[in-house]
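Researcher: Here's a chain I'd like modeled. Treat it as a single chain, no partners, no ligands.
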Amino acid sequence: MKILVISNMFPSEEYPSYGIFVKNHVCLMEEAADEIETVTMKKEVNKMKKMWHYLLFYCRIFWTLLFKKYDIVYLHYASHSAFPILCAKLLNRHINLVVNVHGSDVFPETPFQEKLQKWVARLLKQASHIVVPSDYFKQTVINRYRLSPAHIWISPSGGVNRDLFAPQDTVRDTSIFQVGYVGRIDVDKGWDDALRGFSEFKRQSDRPAELIMVGSGKENQQKEALIQELELQGDVRCYDLLPQEELVAMYNEMDVFVFPSRRKGESLGLVGIEAMACGVPVIGSQIAGIRGYLIDGENGYFSETGNPDSITEKLLEFLANSEEEKQALRSNAFHSAIPYDQLRVRNDMLTMLADLAK
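Model: Modeled as a single isolated chain. Structure tokens:
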């Protein structure tokens, strides 16, 4: 079986976590393919260079699809790659296209992404199959684009490597209550709700506490300004995007993980599952894909979306638990990640790819 993978997101040495799930997915598919090729882009912040890289990316997609044959063409993210693929399909209608949609390609976050929706709709209607990360997103795609459920498969973003994301024996100061946030510092990711909720928790609790924030994005300056405004300079540890091995160590420092996203396009929320795999209970927004694995009172707590006071309330509720109750939450969180194990997801994906190539 010969597979081509296309994605406008792929890790680099400078940005090792950018599109890491795409890289993991490619590694997974290598077991099913006799040959696998990629046409990908890496992160570029300079606007002129970014435009040039996209032009080259589009040319590579078009010419590769026009002059090479593949059993499966697998696309991650529909919006930014749709145009050259549609052009190629005009000249080669036999392309066996599988499209994996994730978030903002279905729920646009900018006016430009909104303009790309017409291409997304056309591409999905021409795809042989569509892969989504969760049942929530499957229903969303069916309703939004009026597609048949029979052609939509669920695969949770490559799953979680539970050999890597696992509880570790770490030596840390247990007198300090550690709250964690991992995610982009970007619009509607809820980083600001995490800060405000944590700040009020600090005010109401007599327990020494620290917030670990891992991630970067367009709102980095706003984050730093809010930390200053809330006078949390000595209570927040900030890290840019980290390699997975270092990220695991961060999860293992946390007593509880806060996942305050306000995005309808939060198709799965893999960071929440990663935290659970490390035995860390999650306080998450009652929204989108998070509802697929977070069970209130069992492996964490739901907070009201967009309400920092609700995060404060849940942090206080978690802290008030007895040690036995906290341990039960940790154990339940750990076991909740099992269905998302990378090996299980891999086996399901290999079966799917074999069926698609027939």
